[in-house]
Write a structure and sequence with these properties.
heterodimer; A: alpha/beta; Rossmann fold; formyl-coa transferase, domain 3; 2 domains; 6-stranded parallel sheet; 3-stranded antiparallel sheet; 16 helices; disordered C terminus; B: alpha/beta; 14 strands
């Protein structure tokens, strides 16, 4: 079963940002037990919405620094993995660094996540990793300032890498009997993303700079970007002459398209994309996103609506055919639909509850962790709509 | 004396030593899963078709390419996504080709595929039959919409998927207008590392149960999890969040401050320093061109007061940055084809047991490992016969 792949493993999540929190979420999604040690900084730094989404299936424990010795002596010996995004100097000071913990538990693996892979002169977090990586430079209007990705997506990517490296470490440790160490920096994760797809532009000699709703130079073939339509925007991409022909057929084969000038997708992409945008735009503005999606399916063209999250919740494929959305029930009885596991697996429903005490999750304690009957915990203070 | 910083210790990582992976993949999202596994120690064999090659091999020659230039071996994305692997070519529409393919799978721990759902069924190789034949095999299917449902065969590219997932609709300035991030192909790379996670998790699960599994990964669903916080906000507030511009999720604004150089910026956010007067960052942002400071001056001025501030580097700036170089951001490998020469590949950005995974080689030549890999199952004469009959196409 894909929802119990990590059953029988215990991960300690020790952090204050979305990075460690998302790593822990993925591990628990795959069936691992995750104990999240939450201090006041974590509660302050993560929004209620973030904690609801990221922590719903974990054991969240309210932790005071004075309890570190209990964690070290009574939880670490039973753990398989630690995922942390705390600064190294703090980890050393608290005796929670890799060298200290592996001497207590040689099978323990350890993932340390940071915004930057080297010493920085000041605070460094989501902003620093997006700015340093080249990512911000690639997003936004060329006539305006660079633009960030929202909702801590940089930290979430760092957390994803942490989960992937941490799970590989768990596998390696299970086979070798020796715990592993992974150190990952968010700025390097995001910079690698920019460089990997920047390869398309580099190969064709296209300058790598933000170009509004269009990929730089349309990635060498027109179109590649987001286009306005009657009720919003659609993503529209053609990578081959065949897809371009299908797009034109979808538009009713307009007479302008017969000109050779509009058969050269590389030429359009590199030299006159605005000219062709202007030819296409009037037709797009006559159609809604749903109409365009229906036409795209009929003509096999990669065109799709830019959806809001509430529209995604109504996506028939995701909702009815994939059972994708989990249901989280708040203490006051409200059901929240949120993205579930992104692989085929049963839908989950869980009641959100308050934090547990550290003693209650200690394996040797009276309320020992039972992988089959975890009390899901979450400290909630849900704000009402303004 | 060179001014280049020394890179980190490179190593052939052995975390996945002994793990064998077979993949039938195209583009980037799924091939990159295999590359990461290879650089963690697995043997990864990319099974390819000469008739329907990986899209990263199906490149049009550039006007500047010299006569005889092997465009199908040279595209940078091919190396980014398939470095460090082996390549064999098989015609899976022939009985002999299928037989060799099944022998490869019988010897493998993991099978990764990402062609349009239904392709295995059309070959008579359903996932169910593969699981029955090879109960310990971990199968990862990666696709846009997943393997089930009416839209499972819908054509998808990364920005199409992140648009359908609700992510692109959240990216824009604080005027609420959608801008998106079409340059980043976020849905693809998010899928790649979700795939690495899932393969590792499935192998770990197999250690306990002795059984493989089939993981049906949807790129759209994976992208949607990046907007999980926005889904919660929408449910709590009764309306969908709009783009909010440069800001933390809690609304704390980021300020983009222009420097004295054209289109050069620093980003800054004051979350808790208490050292700035209200509006001080905005004043810096709005200074006229002639009164703006140099980048380093601005950064120092803000950092000394406890403000998080960073230069907005361009991709070229990242490539030249000494910090990234010292961490081994890229590695250079020699391509076996002389006309291609050196290839610079982005490192997997993980430091494991203090070492950076070494890129083991450029993307393999198409079918370049037919003799070494397939000779495990058929002798040289048999291989020559298969070649003549088109089985290895």
């Amino acid at each position: 079963m894909t929802n119990t792949m990590l059953q029988g493993t215990l991960t300690i999540e020790l952090g204050t940002t979305r990075a460690a929190a998302f790593a822990g979420k993925l591990i628990t999604d795959a069936g691992g037990d995750v104990v999240t040690l939450e201090d006041s900084r974590r509660r302050a730094r993560l929004t209620d919405a973030a904690r609801i989404f990221l922590d719903a299936h974990k054991d969240v424990v309210a932790l005071e620094t004075a309890q570190d010795n209990v964690v070290i002596e009574e939880l670490v010996p039973f753990a398989d993995l630690v995922v942390t995004d705390l600064p190294q100097d703090e980890l050393v000071r608290r005796g929670l660094d890799w060298d200290s913990l592996r001497s207590l538990n040689p099978r323990l693996s350890y993932v340390r996540l940071s915004a930057v892979g080297w010493e920085t002169e000041g605070p460094a977090g989501e902003l620093t990793m997006q700015a340093l990586s080249g990512l911000m430079e690639m997003v936004g209007d060329p006539q305006r300032e660079p633009l960030a990705l929202p909702y801590g997506i940089g930290s979430l990517q760092l957390g994803l890498h942490g989960a992937a490296a941490g799970t590989t470490a768990l596998l390696s440790a299970a086979r070798s009997g020796q715990g592993r160490l992974a150190e990952i920096a968010g700025s390097e994760v995001l910079a690698s993303y920019v460089r990997i797809y920047g390869a398309v532009a580099s190969y064709y000699g296209i300058p790598l700079q933000r170009d509004g709703r269009r990929a730089p130079g349309s990635g060498g073939r027109y179109p590649f970007g987001f286009f306005a339509c009657r009720d919003g925007y659609v993503a529209m991409i053609c990578r081959s002459d065949r897809e371009w022909a299908s797009l034109l057929a979808m538009m009713g084969d307009p007479s302008w398209a017969k000109d050779e000038r509009y058969q050269d997708l590389y030429g359009i992409a590199m030299k006159y994309p605005d000219e062709v945008d202007a030819l296409i735009e009037p037709w797009l503005l006559e159609h809604t996103r749903d109409e365009l999606l229906a036409l795209a399916q009929k003509f096999a063209v990669p065109v799709a609506p830019v959806r809001s999250v509430t529209e995604v919740m109504e996506d028939v494929q995701l909702r009815d055919h994939r059972d994708f959305f989990d249901v989280l029930r708040t203490a006051d009885g409200r059901d929240l639909r949120v993205p579930g596991r992104p692989w085929a697996s049963p839908q989950r429903q869980v009641e959100l509850q308050g934090p547990r005490t550290l003693q209650s999750v200690l394996p040797a304690g009276p309320d020992a962790i039972d992988p089959h009957a975890i009390t899901h915990s979450l400290a909630l203070t849900i704000s009402e709509a303004p | 004396m060179s001014s280049e910083p020394a890179g980190p210790a490179l190593a052939e990582i052995e975390w996945l030593r002994g793990v064998k992976v077979v993949e039938v993949t195209t583009a980037v999202s799924a091939p990159l899963i295999g590359r990461v596994l290879a650089e963690l120690g697995a043997e990864v064999v990319k099974v390819e078709s000469r008739a329907k090659p990986d899209v990263n091999r199906a490149r049009l020659p550039r006007p500047t390419d010299p006569e005889g230039f092997p465009a199908h071996e040279s595209f940078q994305l091919l190396h980014e996504s398939s470095a460090s692997k082996k390549s064999v070519t098989l015609n899976l529409k022939t009985d002999e080709g299928q037989s060799l393919f099944l022998k490869l799978l019988g010897d493998a721990d993991v099978f990764i595929e990402n062609f349009v759902p239904g392709w295995l069924d059309r070959l008579g190789l359903t996932v169910e039959s593969l699981r029955e034949k090879f109960p310990r095999l971990v199968i990862l299917s990666a696709s846009g919409y997943g393997q089930t449902g009416p839209l499972r065969t819908q054509r998808s590219y990364a920005p199409v998927m992140s648009a359908l997932a609700g992510v692109e609709g959240l990216i824009g300035y604080d005027d609420g207008q959608v801008m998106g991030c079409s340059a980043l192909a976020l849905a693809d790379l998010n899928c790649s590392f979700t795939g690495v996670f899932l393969v590792a998790a499935a192998l770990k699960g197999r250690e306990q149960t002795g059984h493989g599994t089939h993981v049906d990964l949807s790129q759209i669903e994976a992208a949607s999890t990046l907007a999980g916080e926005a889904f919660v906000e929408a449910e709590l507030n009764g309306s969908a969040p709009l783009p909010r511009g440069n800001a933390d999720p809690d609304g704390t604004p980021w300020t983009l401050i222009p420097t004295e150089r054209p289109d050069e910026w620093i980003a800054a956010v004051d979350t808790q320093s208490g050292t700035l007067a209200e509006g001080e960052l905005l004043e810096l942002k709005n200074l006229p061109a002639g009164r703006r400071s140099a980048r380093e001056t601005l950064l120092e001025r803000l950092r000394v007061r406890g403000i998080e501030a960073a230069p907005v580097l361009t991709p070229t700036g990242v490539a030249k940055d000494r910090g990234f170089a010292a961490r081994g951001f890229t590695q250079t490998v020699q391509h076996p084809h002389a006309m291609i020469g050196e290839v610079k590949v982005t490192s997997v950005p993980w430091h494991l047991d203090g070492r950076l995974p070494r890129v083991l080689g450029a993307a393999p030549l198409l079918g370049g490992d037919n003799p070494t890999i397939l000779s495990r199952f058929v002798d040289a004469a048999g291989l020559a016969d298969f070649e003549a009959k088109g089985v290895l196409r």
